[in-house]
Design goal:
This protein is of the alpha+beta class. It has 2 helices and 5 strands. It has helices at about 35-50, 75-80, and strands at about 1-10, 15-20, 25, 55-60, 65-70. The protein has a 5-stranded mixed sheet.
Length: about 90
C-alpha cells in the first residue's frame, strides 16, 4: 500500500497520526543527511506494526510530503491511528 506522509522533523517528541488521507509523522531528529527519513521509516513501521524492511521511501526524499510503500499493511491499521488511544495520548 502506498501512503502519503507529511514529515515534521525536530519535533519535541515522536508521534504518528492519520487524518484520513495523510499520515503525519513527527520525529525528534533534524532533516540532515537522511537522519529524519530514517527516523520517519522507523516511526511508521513501529506505529503500523510492520517490519522496518516492509517500509520503503519511494518519493520525496528531500520534500516534507513523501510517498512510502508499506508491504503487508491492512487498511484498518491506518484507521486505528486516527482515533485517540484509551490513555488519551497518541
Amino acid at each position: 500500500m502506498r501512503i502519503a506522509v507529511r514529515a515534521h522533523p525536530r519535533a519535541a517528541r515522536s508521534r504518528v497520526t492519520w487524518d484520513g488521507t495523510l499520515l503525519h509523522v513527527w520525529v525528534t531528529v533534524p532533516a540532515v543527511e537522511g537522519a529524519a527519513n530514517r527516523a520517519l521509516v522507523d516511526a511508521v513501521a513501529g506505529a503500523l506494526g510492520v517490519r522496518r524492511s516492509a517500509v520503503r521511501l519511494v518519493a520525496g526524499e528531500r520534500a516534507r510530503v513523501k510517498q512510502l510503500e508499506v508491504e503487508g499493511l491492512a487498511p484498518e491499521r491506518l484507521d486505528a491511528l486516527s482515533r485517540p488511544s484509551p490513555g488519551g495520548g497518541l
